[in-house]
UniProtKB/TrEMBL annotation:
Gene3D superfamilies cross-referenced by the UniProt entry: Glycosidases
Top-level taxon: Bacteria
Annotated GO MF terms: beta-glucosidase activity
Any Gene Ontology CC annotation: cytosol
InterPro entries, sorted: GH, Glyco_hydro_1
Stretches of the chain forming a coiled coil according to its record: none
Organism, scientific name: Paenibacillus pectinilyticus
Biological processes annotated in GO: carbohydrate catabolic process
Listed name of the protein: Glycoside hydrolase family 1
Similarity annotation: Belongs to the glycosyl hydrolase 1 family.
């Protein structure tokens, strides 16, 4: 039975600047990749050279049949030193946005996707009370220059991700098997973390207490700073570009429980989503990101069953989680939803095709029940740099030969494009 999606539904894919552009030399991640004893398996280098090849990549998206592209503008490029805004980099992103317009692709711009300017970390990073104002200033500058080309803004990617990172680190220290983080963490090098912190403190000129990059365990105060950065940026964006719709994205599991685990699952939902509702209730939309489920028992989160199919990230292959997360996000938040990331790390592309189909069945069921879902952005457009895990994980709809940077659309890319073209599943 053919299932129709609403007219104007956005079908697309997502990237993050540091993971695809290459040579992001002013960012904290670049420095962290290249210090002695780095937690990163390899440096990003030229990544997949999207900074140079964006025109071809956007044209390829259109040829596939997609009409939406979620990408990030790199703060470290726009403001490489505090208070110094690089006009040439603004022009680069203007050209990216114009390429989207040329190919009739709606841009969904993320202002911060994990990587930060090195100078921000030297000023205390994401534990500094000055960061929200600095972030809002950067967002205001970008919107003054480019706001007329940007219909949707996600201020911060996965503003809650540090909670998941902290939990993964605790479970690893306790040698407890459980689902992996929804970001590339190199748990093989956990034992050398303290030595790495010392090297980073020296490189950034930061106190020995550690470098407060975005992808670090947060204090409660640090979490408040991140969400304050969102609300201050939202206000700045609306003042300058009132036609631009603004939201934030969160990384969420489908929180489930077995006998005795309901209270634990409810607490996880509270910790990772519900506590942040006051910061998001005035947003124009919610950026929802889901990859799998987390199942809780009486003693906490349960390991992925041995019999379950697992992804390259160590997570359970569970596309049905997306529908559940859309439903509880709508129930508790009540604003339109943009699925800004959903996908699977696998080297078997037939499993990606099946993942897309099963996830979209759930999305359609939500829409049929009146939930306003604006679009589906698959993670990711291309196989790319998965943070500390380097290039070892393959999420993309497009394969990239990094020796030649040649792109090859996978069957899953053609499959999603065919769905987008027909607007049906």
């Amino acid at each position: 039975m053919t299932q129709q999606f609403p007219e104007g539904f956005l079908w697309g894919a997502s990237t993050a600047a540091h993971q695809v552009e290459g040579n992001n030399t002013k960012s904290d991640c670049w420095l962290m990749e290249n210090v002695e004893g780095s937690m990163f398996k390899e440096p990003s280098g030229s990544a997949v050279d999207h900074y140079r090849l964006y025109k071809e990549d956007i044209a390829q998206m259109a040829a596939m049949g997609l009409n939406g592209y979620r990408f990030s503008i790199e703060w470290a490029r726009i403001e490489p030193e505090e208070g110094h805004f690089d006009a040439a980099e603004i022009e680069h992103y203007r050209n990216v946005l114009l390429a989207c317009r040329q190919w009739k692709i709606t841009p969904i711009v993320t202002m911060h996707h994990f990587s930060s300017p090195q100078w921000l970390i030297r000023e205390g990073g994401w534990e500094s009370a000055g960061t929200p104002a600095r972030f809002a200033r950067y967002c205001a500058h970008v919107m003054r220059e480019l706001g007329d080309l940007i219909p949707y803004v996600c201020t911060i990617n996965e503003a809650n991700i540090s909670l998941g990172i902290k939990k993964i680190m605790k479970r690893h220290q306790a040698q407890a098997a459980a689902p992996g983080a929804q970001v590339g963490m190199n748990t093989d090098k956990m034992a050398q973390m303290q030595k790495n912190y010392e090297a980073l403190s020296k490189a950034f000129g930061s106190p020995a207490a550690g470098v407060q990059a975005f992808l670090a365990p947060r204090s409660d105060n640090g979490l408040e700073i991140i969400f304050k950065a969102h609300t201050e940026a939202r206000a700045a964006i609306r003042e300058i570009s009132p036609q631009t719709q603004v939201g934030v994205t969160l990384s969420l599991y489908d929180y489930q429980s077995v006998a005795g685990g309901a209270e634990q699952a409810a607490q996880a939902l509270q910790d990772e989503f519900l506590q942040f509702l006051p910061y998001m209730k005035d947003d124009d939309f919610f950026g929802l990101q889901n990859y799998t489920r987390a199942v809780y028992g009486a003693d906490g989160i349960l390991p992925v069953p041995e019999s379950a199919e697992k992804t390259q990230m160590g997570n359970e292959y569970y596309p049905e989680g997306l529908e559940a997360v859309v439903r509880y996000a709508w129930k508790h938040l009540g604003i339109p939803i943009m699925i800004t990331e959903n996908g699977v790390a696998t080297d078997d592309d037939t499993r990606r095709v099946a993942f897309i189909d099963r996830a979209l069945q759930g999305v359609h069921a939500c829409i049929s029940d009146g939930i306003p879902v604006k679009g589906y952005m698959h993670w990711s457009l291309m196989d790319n740099f998965e943070w500390q895990l380097g290039f070892s994980r393959t999420f993309g709809l497009i394969e990239v030969d990094r020796t030649t940077q040649e792109r090859t659309v996978k069957p899953s890319g053609h499959h999603l494009g065919s769905i987008a073209t027909k607007n049906t599943i």
